[in-house]
Amino acid sequence: MSEFGNPRTDVRTELVAAGWREDSRGRLAAADGTVWAEINDLRDSGLDGPGGSWSVHFDSDVPAGVIVAACLAAAGQEATR
Q1: pLDDT tens figures, 26-68
Q2: 3-state SS track over the chain
Q3: Hey, what long-range contacts does 44-50 have (CB within 8 A, 24 or more apart)?
Q4: What does residue 29 show for φ and ψ, rounded to 5 degrees?
Q5: CA torsion 54→78→29→66, rounded to 10°?
């Protein structure tokens, strides 16, 4: 679980349901190595491509649905709804 006091549980719940797994550092990773993580206690987060090949920052006011859709698309997964 996140180390931050106000975690993005809205995003975490959706990604875990899509098969993403939490690593020892609290990041969620897709099977292909794409990683999403909270980056501060303000609810900002980031999405990194496999091996850190690219990176996207999401400010805290970005809706969970947008973040989840971006994460799933980056990992080559289809949204279930």
Answers
A1: 999 999 999 999 999 899 999 999 999 999 999 999 999 999 9
A2: CCCCCCCCHHHHHHHHHCCCEECCCCCEECCCCCEEEECCCCCCEEEECHHHCCEEEECCCCCHHHHHHHHHHHCCCCCCC
A3: 45/8, 45/11, 47/71, 47/74, 49/74
A4: -125, 140
A5: 70
